[in-house]
Amino acid sequence: MNVPVESVEQEQKALDQYVKGKCVAEAVQDVVQSLITAKPINPKQWLLEHLEGELSNESQDLSESDLHRLFATTRKITSEIVPQEAIESVIRETIVLLNCDRVSLFVVDRKMSKLRLYASNLATPIMVSPGQGIVGSVFSHKHTVNIGNCYLDQRFDRSFDDKTGYTTRSLIAMPILDFENNCIGVIQAINKLPFDQTQKVEKAGTDPIGTCAVPFEKNDERMLMHLTQHVGIAMRNAELYREAIATSERATGFLNTIQSISQDLGTQSMLLTITMHANKIVSSERATVFLVDEPNQQLWSVSTDTGQEIRIPMRAGIAGQCFVEANVINIPDAYADKRFNQEVDKKTGFKTQSILAIPMLEDDAAREEFEKAAQKRKSLATLADKKVTEQGNKVIGVIQMINKVSFDGQLEIFDEGDIEVMELFAKFVGPKLAMSSFLATRHSEPSDRKEAELALGRQPQQTDDMVRMHKRSSRGQGTGGMIVLGEDGEEDDEDGFGVVD
């Protein structure tokens, strides 16, 4: 039986129209590409599950099982209130919820105007620019990005994969918004893992190269969208907890300082006490309180480790500039500031990130006390050391803080709140130090070292260094056995003893 040519042509035309109208070629290509990428043991079983998943994605509602999983995940995340533990919980639970290989959490740092990156494959967080890469775009425009094959997307930066040997196949990134619709971070999941033929989820982290990853589905987007709402709440609660802890630490530090310096302490003990409490008030890794020695044109302090005096030229370094200019100096990145001497870090192995220097002033009451004491003793030297200028209160020292650190160990920078607190602290302790008799008379005595050691809770020992210091002081040589730092922050060779931290 001969089929009319016209009929065959009509059927072929109708078939072509169907294939073109229904995008059959594209659908088949997508399925084949997904099959080749997944490389399942049972292709037919995988195709069945894949098509069922595609059909379920057409619905905007989550299934009952997905809702149970989402509820269990959000309950674990919102139960954490300590910032670092909350972040670790978000990363850990998102990996399980989306069945992916890696999760990264980018949290905005308003103080530094950067994003702090926490990731499942990073031991410590790193700082990244808000406008950098795919995450920067998600943060700026508050939109979701779902990429099935990252190497075919021009927005993806392959430099990280090239350095580490890791293969990023699929990626989904979503903004985290607060109750005012402000973006406070971005959550990013990488390399969704497939199901095997037994319908068991492959364990996350078993595919370090990412060669078996499959694209994230619409259902994953919906799950992550619901999750980010709870992540935003958890992050906000953690931030409030962080602020409450900081406020409590400051109040405790102030109270301890008031209780300590209300006692009859010498200048050495008072310096150590103030230094230790200053660390707690603004939560810094290190603190140093410098006092001025005008006859010798030096700033001096006491090491909290050894109880030994440290001396620097009056105009040297950041502390010297703060003293001379009588201005607050706040440096968020020490290595980007030309005033910072990096050689000190290189020698000690310590990494300085942020610096805050606050001048200490004597008030009118302290000045009057000094003048009365000087007149009573008829000491012209004291009057010369504490002469009053017409420009107002005199700078008698500097409080220098290094490396602002949160209570959970994360390095931060000093902000306006820290400056206000330390200025208040300086106004309180400055006059106390100014009224100390040790500041009025700067003759070195063997009892200085003894006082410092007692303040540190140690038994004073008559070491060889102390003997040399005493002899040198008796002969009137050098600087009375103190550690003297030059303009570059190094110890003078002629002293020959002591270690500067």
UniProtKB/TrEMBL annotation:
Comp. bias intervals (Acidic residues): 487-501
Residue ranges with Basic and acidic residues bias: 443-453
Region Disordered, annotated ranges: 443-501
Pfam family, one: GAF
Residues of the GAF domain: 78-245, 266-443
The name this protein goes by in its record: GAF domain-containing protein
Native species: Zooxanthella nutricula
